[in-house]
Description:
This protein is α/β, with parallel strands linked by helices.
Amino acid sequence: MASEDPPSLALKQALCYTCWNISSNLSRCLACKRVSYCSKNCQKQDWNRNHKALCKKLVALNESKGYLPSSNRCWKDYYAEQVYHSLILMISYEPYCYHCYRRESQIEDGARLKTCQYCRLTSFCPSCQPTHPSAECATLQVIATDDRILVDLRRRTGRSSTIAFTGLPRQQHFPLASATDWYDYYTRLSDKGGLRFKMNRDLKYQGHDRKEREFVEGIRYGTNTTTYQLTLLAAIEAIIPNVSTRASINLHIIGAAGAEFASAPAFEELLHLLPSLTALHLSFVGKNVFVPHEEGTKTQDLHTLQCCTTCTTMGRSISFTTWRGPYHAYVDTDSYKTPDLAAAFHSGFSVDEQADWYPTIEYLAHASHPTLFTAARNFEILGEMEIWKSLGAAFVRNAEVNKWKGMSPSLVVYGDRPNEVSYRNHWWYIVEQK
Ligand SMILES: [Zn+2]
Ligand SMILES: [Zn+2]
Ligand SMILES: [Zn+2]
Ligand SMILES: [Zn+2]
Ligand SMILES: [Zn+2]
């Protein structure tokens, strides 16, 4: 989900849709029954904001019952209606019966869906068993917990993400590959060793201090942001043999969008974990790249990312340029310099905008540098492998689960099955240089 979207819990009517208040006393819009509020005031606010227009459409949707076979309604029946109505998140994430795939407007008149009391993200109609597999419920409970962390974070700080990385540059290079997981990275390679016994391997806080709990929750939730830098670092280690003595590294981020920019301060982690590195250069290239100067100009301005005092005093720096447009066009410009590594996070090139991506993919299959790719879902990886195969590409790293994927899951909107979840940068692979 994008950072401004309401949390899944609010979309599932377990939080006030306006203020995201965690209240047990929510009341629903009586007309559409698809949003819940903690107070009349919150309802009024949302009504004036956009519910007034939306409510009518939702009522109409409720009245069109859809295809309802008397028995054996399957996920595909639900899914087909979902895709048809996919325009707003409120519909995409609506509660439906986990077993018979009916939304509330499709069950017996006046009957209500019951919510799983543990995850609050799964619903059941009165005719079905009010249970779902406990392992699945446990994963959904993580989403619910993280939703609450996010709500709390936005309230306290106004921000939607946290970034936790090593506070000071390390004197010695410890390969990231030597860390077994995020816990090992934070407590051994980074500087959160003090939390070793206060959080478990899943970065869940085990103590009783409120401030410390917020901090650990921030770290855990923040893996969805720093996943970009650690995945890059893992790829750099895989492709640059003399990485522990390199003074400069040049990275290209292809198709960069909001999430990559939100994680930008964490690029300093590369300086902090690679002691020999004094200059890191980043180029953000893509259709959605934010260009800080006039639109349409094709010149590149060099910007610097603010580093910590220690790095600055040592003369170490991170510079970046942005270029709006497709990567295969960028390579023909004067500002292009062959990178050590290019990276495309969640490109989805086998699924969306295939025609847009294809010339870039064709170029990268035989580029003179390696390229890192990530995807959230396995079927995307399978599709991508087909395309690379047809282009005769080879791999430094075959597609596999990424050790540095984000730890905070999200509900997949149009999953292959109910309650499917995905993780940021779940899968990764590196295309070889030619
Ligand atoms: Zn409210
Ligand atoms: Zn309504
Ligand atoms: Zn049911
Ligand atoms: Zn549950
Ligand atoms: Zn620094």
